[in-house]
Amino acid sequence: MLRRGLLLLFLALLLLAAGATVALYHFSMSALNEPGRMETYLVTKAKFWIISRSARGPLPQAPPYDARSVAIGQMAYGGECANCHGVDGRTPTDIGRWMYPRTLALDSAEVQQWSDAELFWIVKNGIRLSGMPGFGKIHNDEQIWHLVHYVRSLGTPPR
Ligand code: HEC
Questions:
Q1: CATH of the domain at 49
Q2: Is the shortest distance between the CB of 110 and ligand 1 below 6 Å?
Q3: Residue nearest to atom 24 of ligand 1 (CA)
Q4: ∠ Cα 150 157 81 (to 5°)
Q5: Residue 144: exposed, middle, or buried by beta-carbon count in 10 A (0-12, 13-18, 19+)?
Q6: Range of the domain at 113
């Protein structure tokens, strides 16, 4: 009885290994292929879950959300973000577009649905396994808030 169990386990492992080999054989490293629906769905879900969990907790004081803060953020944006996300934040450049995962338009619903705390976390820490760098070693918290305010202004401008 035990012998048969072991044999079945061995066969199952063999099948799994064969499946993994075939999958690897067909896997392409090209960044040009469009991500599949399943891949996008699973990775996006995981990203939202992990980032929203990471962004909980106390936040450094934000400067007021006004035209001044947005203008300071926009200035830093031009030097540090525009080469991927595009000069206006809405149209990723060729370099941004052909990264894998693709650079997002910052006025899109996908980006604007993040809370301020989550945007702050993203700009400060970046996103692993994507082209999105973390700016926490370059900017202090106040400057990161100005960048967040610029990103937010693309969806909801300050009044
Ligand atoms: C080298 C290219 C590059 C630069 C420079 C860059 N980004 Fe990104 N950014 C990306 C990519 C790629 C993504 C998409 C990551 C993903 O798949 O979630 C992204 C995502 C984002 C997101 C949305 C996160 C999400 O997944 O919804 C925000 C907000 C953002 N970037 C803001 C900025 C700001 C602000 C700067 C400048 C301070 C900046 N980025 C600089 C490549 C870049």
A1: 1.10.760.10
A2: yes
A3: 111
A4: 20
A5: buried
A6: 45-153
